[in-house]
Write a structure and sequence with these properties.
The complex is a heterodimer of chains A (112) and B (113). Chain A is an all-beta fold and 112 residues long. Chain A contains no helices and 12 strands. Helices cover 0% and strands 52% of the residues of chain B. The chains are: A mainly beta (112), B mainly beta (113).
C-alpha cells in the first residue's frame, strides 16, 4: 500500500540554524515526490518536486531535498532558517496526476 | 500563474443543512480535486474529476457528492452536514501530463454546529 510518513509532528529551530524535515514513503513504482508548504489559513504551495534525474533537487525559498531510493526517503533541508519559514510542511508522493498521497505534515516553529 | 479560487473562505452551518463549496480555476486544467485537511491526518482525497461530468471517489467520499458541469468549476456538496464534517476543505487542480503537480486554492474552513 502507498503511504507517506513524516515522523516529526512538530519541530522547533532557532533562526539561522539548519533544518531537515524527514519524509519516508512506501510506493510500488518509481515515485514522483513533492514538498508543499502551508502558511496559516492558506492553501498549499509547491516548494519542490522530484520526477527523475539528479537526486538532489532545488526549490523555492532556498529549500532543497534529496531522493534516496535505498532509504525510501525524500528529506527536505535548508541551511539557514528564517522566521518567515514557520509553517506546516507536507511531503507527497504520486506517479500520475490522479493519485497523490500526503504525509500528516510537520509544523515548523522558528525561535528568534 | 494558475489561479484556483474557492468561493468561501469561512462558513458556519447547522447540522442537517445542505452545503455547497465551489472551486473555480482559470488555467484550463483537466483534473480537479477536493481534499479534506484535519490536524494530524494530512490531506485526504474526497473526490476528483478528470473531465467535465466525470468524477471518481477518493479515499473518503462518504457524506459528500460533487458536480462538474463546466471544465473550470468543481463543486463539493454536503447533502446533510454533520459535525464530523467540520474541517478545512482544499480544492486543487492539475494538468493532464506525465508528471503533473497539484495547484491548490486557499481553502474553505467549514464549521458545522
Amino acid at each position: 500500500a502507498q503511504s507517506v510518513t513524516q515522523p516529526d509532528i512538530h519541530i522547533t529551530v532557532s533562526e539561522g540554524a539548519s533544518l531537515e524535515l524527514r519524509c519516508n514513503y512506501s510506493y510500488g513504482a518509481t515515485p514522483y515526490l513533492f514538498w508543499y508548504v502551508q502558511s496559516p489559513g492558506q492553501g498549499l504551495q509547491l516548494l519542490l518536486k522530484y520526477f527523475s534525474g539528479d537526486t538532489l533537487v532545488q526549490g523555492i525559498k532556498g529549500f532543497e531535498a534529496e531522493f534516496k531510493r535505498s532509504q525510501s526517503s525524500f528529506n527536505l533541508r535548508k541551511p539557514s532558517v528564517h522566521w518567515s519559514d514557520a509553517a506546516e510542511y507536507f511531503c507527497a508522493v504520486g506517479n500520475n496526476f490522479n493519485k497523490f498521497y500526503f504525509g500528516s505534515g510537520t509544523k515548523l516553529n522558528v525561535k528568534p | 500563474d494558475v489561479k484556483v479560487t474557492q468561493s468561501s473562505r469561512y462558513l458556519v452551518k447547522r447540522t442537517g443543512e445542505k452545503v455547497f463549496l465551489e472551486c473555480v480555476q482559470d488555467m484550463d486544467h483537466e483534473n480537479m480535486f477536493w481534499y479534506r485537511q484535519d490536524p494530524g491526518l494530512g490531506l485526504r482525497l474526497i473526490y476528483f474529476s478528470y473531465d467535465v461530468k466525470m468524477k471518481e471517489k477518493g479515499d473518503i467520499p462518504e457524506g459528500y457528492s460533487v458536480s462538474r458541469e463546466k471544465k473550470e468549476r468543481f463543486s463539493l456538496i454536503l447533502e446533510s452536514a454533520s459535525t464530523n464534517q467540520t474541517s478545512m476543505y482544499l480544492c486543487a487542480t492539475a494538468p493532464t501530463s506525465a508528471a503533473g503537480e497539484l495547484f491548490f486554492g486557499e481553502g474553505s474552513r467549514l464549521t458545522v454546529l
